[in-house]
Amino acid sequence: MKVSCDREQLLAAFQTVAAVAPTRSPKPILQNVKLEVTEEGATLTATDLEISVRHSVDGVDVQTPGSALLSVSRFGSILRESVDQTLQIESGSSGATIRGERSQFQLPAENPAEFPKVTTFEGDDYYELPARLLRELVRRTAFATDNESSRYALGGIKLEFEDDNVTAIGTDGRRLAKMTGPITCHGQPIDPTQNTIVPTRAMTLIERAVAPNDAEVKLAVRGNEFVVQTERATIAARLLEGRFPDWKKVFPDSSGSQKIDLAVGPTHAAVRQAAIVTSDESRGIDFTFGDGMLVLAGKAAEVGQSRVELPIGYDGDEIVIMLDPKFLMEFLKVLDADKTFAMELKNADSAAVCVTDDGFGYVIMPLARDR
């Protein structure tokens, strides 16, 4: 194999793919990225046997087709540290040689034929959705999942497909985020009884692989794998097993709730200020709504107290609820600062529900008041 490539374009693709490769593995070959070169172009591949990714690379001039295994750590460092616009890569039985204008590196390499095969996107049965929507589905649910939980299913995002909509749900048992958006169905992409829980790590990688200029994205379930195809990449992930909470029962009935409209930016700033004096032991903040004002009060022994006032358009009966500010800040962080959202509240013991006008819902369980 012999190619000449644009370093920056190769680096961008390599970093996306290398995120899948394990830093430690009983199979050292997995700590490499496979570069495959044909007359049609170049493709990078990586896998940890749970998640795999294939990514095409632009800016590659093919002189001799072939393939090579490139060390994530060593070759990745060469790409980052080099100042050359173009790099020459040549591989053979003795390893790979990387040349710049004034630099040359010789790296040992394993046999590319021994690298595991990865899933490709095939067939006419799939869903299609706007790339921007897919990014939002991940951003607005991944933060609410729990990768450290003993309940395996909580370490993933559940996808539900119904009619012309897809709903993504993430929860750690103390809060739950869900996002719904439109989707187009081609053929029969999924068994309706299929439990589709995709690892959060895989969904985050998918978000990274979706380029800003991508228009549509295809996705499907093939056996126990979730497969996504963007304009340049194909990502496949093994589905998680286990029972996922019935999220529809988590969202409380809104009847009897007070609906309070809040501005994202000012609310986020107020919560951040009030959270300054919280601690791991006393992390709760009292949110008091009433008389046209939201008052946030925090208190922690040996740390101090805080009181922050935010004018709001609510003059109903006073409602006081204690919430974990971290949970609310993570919700506000994924919204545009100039937008608004509504908070639905009943009392101090009922869950707070935050909703937006674009299909995003978020439930936060209140904290006990006896700190």
TrEMBL record:
One of its GO terms (molecular function) is DNA binding. Residues 249-367 form the DNA polymerase III beta sliding clamp C-terminal domain. Residues 1-118 form the DNA polymerase III beta sliding clamp N-terminal domain. One of its GO terms (biological process) is DNA strand elongation involved in DNA replication. Gene3D superfamilies: 3.70.10.10, DNA Polymerase III, subunit A, domain 2. It is found in: Cytoplasm. One of its GO terms (cellular component) is cytoplasm. CDD domains: beta_clamp. Keywords: Cytoplasm, DNA replication, DNA-binding, DNA-directed DNA polymerase, Nucleotidyltransferase, Transferase. Belongs to the beta sliding clamp family. PANTHER family: BETA SLIDING CLAMP, DNA POLYMERASE III SUBUNIT BETA. Confers DNA tethering and processivity to DNA polymerases and other proteins. Acts as a clamp, forming a ring around DNA (a reaction catalyzed by the clamp-loading complex) which diffuses in an ATP-independent manner freely and bidirectionally along dsDNA. Initially characterized for its ability to contact the catalytic subunit of DNA polymerase III (Pol III), a complex, multichain enzyme responsible for most of the replicative synthesis in bacteria; Pol III exhibits 3'-5' exonuclease proofreading activity. Forms a ring-shaped head-to-tail homodimer around DNA. This is Beta sliding clamp. The gene is dnaN.
